[in-house]
Amino acid sequence: MSVQILLQGKLVGIEDFLLAPAAECERVAAGVGEQNLLAGRSHWITLLAEVVPRALLAEFGLARILLGSSGGGQFLLVLPSEAGPAAREFLGAGDRQIREMSDGLVKLVWGVTENLGDWSVVRKRLVEDLQRKLAIPEVDGPEFFEPFQEAAPAMADGYFPDLGLRLREAELIGWRPEAPARMELGFGKHTWGLAPNRAPEAIPIARHTSPNDDGTAAADLRMLAARSEGRHTWGMLRGDVDGFRIRLRRAQTIEEHVRLSVLYKQFFAGELEVLCSQPEFWRKVTVLFSGGDDFAVYGAWDALIPLAREMQRLFHRFSEENLRDFPGPEGKTISMALALAPEPESPLASVYEEAGRMLELAKATDKDCIFLLGRTLEWRQLGDAAELKETLARLVGEFGSSRHLLNELTSFYLKGGQGWAPGAEQFEKPWRFQRRLNRVLAGARDRELQKLRAHLTSEMMGRGAAQVKLRPAGLVALEWARLFTEV
Q1: What is the mean pLDDT of residues 425-447?
Q2: The whole model's pTM is what?
Q3: Residues 6+ away with beta carbon under 8 Å from 154
Q4: For the chain, which terminus, N or C, has the lower number of CB atoms within 10 Å?
Q5: Predicted pLDDT at 258
Q6: pLDDT digits (tens, 9 = 90+) for 122-172
Q7: Shortest CA distance to 274 belongs to which of 322, 331, 314?
Q8: Phi/psi of residue 145, each to 5°?
Q9: Which residues pair with 52 in a beta bridge?
């Protein structure tokens, strides 16, 4: 009886590739051209981890069920041992073209081991084999490329912008053996449907794109910024599951590992696509990618904050329904970060990079939180900030309070107990805070306005404190209201 082997593939260098200045960046037009370039790169990475393992099985006539998991830059295959040499040759050809198309930034590595013993032991052998491959110096690099090949990198021929432009309407993705890393839309020796295709073998991928005003193309960054309420700008929202790798490492069997991997991937691909298609989001946001445990969406800044709250709510429900039998908090919470573009014409890649930096800050501070408008907040604190922002917006909008109110209240944070300005005075008594609030809202006789003022005082200031302690959500709410009420 043939012994089974497990093969785990992994794409490395993804982030560097997405952020690298490609030669074609100078050739594409600003706006939609740049969006298509980054979107094409992101979709290419997503499709590689889905198409390459499926193509391997199809090319060797192996059953589709041998694909354990795929997506998120990784895949896991169960193969008969006699298929091992051919699989290595197949993946080697794919790796060579992946390196060529990414100008050497992305490479495909894989580990192989016999499917013998407890899963924890098998997984350890797989990881060790992958780590050995990653530790090999690049001095042997030339063997991955054809000699005497001086042509320009394949990434400069317009493939990625074209993929980013056309994928949102494609129904099939194809693979050809003569170009093992260059997926084609609509044709190939082997083809697969793309979600929302209902076929069981369809590849799930979130690709919602906000349309322009006449629906003939994608909305560019300036158009997305113009659709925001208040300040006309756009932003990038990135999210990542907390402790996802730890959760996978704790899987007791390969079946459990595969089930978890598929659950997370399908959640992000499915829920993100459906959510972004809702009336309040579909003209304001565009999906950059959804992975095995993360996602990125960009669009009008005012739509991204409620989108983040809704994604967190959906993920919380997902973890309660699917992970209740798994002990520990790992993999059950999600953190996010929102970066705003300094200008409507800011490069998409630079804002994506900034959102990634902010996400790292959020995850280093705590878990199950969001970095937003200069602060890291727990999700419940974001709910407080949303309520406070509505109060502030009503004071400025409905009751005609000056926007100077927001500047005045912001000064409380610079001087009042948050540690933002070393050596700055602190308010020794809560009534001092209330007196300053009364001063900026002087002359208010409307009962509704008085109620809003009382609510504002109670929400911004810790109740019952001997010394004023301003709530951490307050500064976020103030900046949020400032952006929302800007004309």
Answers
A1: 52
A2: 0.86
A3: 97, 100, 101, 182
A4: N
A5: 93
A6: 999 998 998 888 876 554 443 333 443 444 444 446 899 999 989 988 999
A7: 314
A8: -125, 150
A9: none
Q: In what order do the strands lie in the sheet with 4-12?
A: 67-71, 74-80, 4-12, 107-114
CB 137 within 8 A of CB 13: no
Residue 357's contacts (CB-CB under 8 Å, 6 or more residues apart) are: none
CB 93 within 8 A of CB 11: no
Average pLDDT across the chain, whole number? 82
Numbers of helices and strands, H then E, in the chain = 15, 13
Taken in order 128, 131, 137, 142, is the CA torsion positive or negative?
positive
Query: In the structure encoding, which two tokens stand for residue 180, read together?
Result: 């093992």
210-260 per-position pLDDT tens digit: 999 888 888 999 999 999 998 999 999 999 999 999 999 999 999 999 999
pLDDT winner (highest mean) among 260-264, 419-423, 434-438: 260-264
User: What does the alpha-carbon distance between residue 170 and residue 260 come to, in Å, rounded to a whole number?
Assistant: 28
Interval 173-205: pLDDT, tens: 999 999 999 999 989 999 999 976 556 678 989
Identify which has the larger pLDDT, 388 or 189: 189
Q: Tell me the C-alpha distance between 103 and 425, whole Å.
A: 55
Listing DSSP states for 217-235 in one string gives SB--HHHHHHTSSSS--EE
Cross-strand pairs, 337: 238, 371
**What is the C-alpha separation between 358 and 75, in angstroms, rounded?**
28
Residue 439, Cβ density class (10 Å: 0-12 exposed, 13-18 middle, ≥19 buried): exposed
487/393 Cα distance (integer angstroms): 13
The answer for residues whose C-beta is within 8 angstroms of residue 140's C-beta and 6 or more apart is: none
Cα dihedral value 430, 434, 437, 439, nearest 10: -120
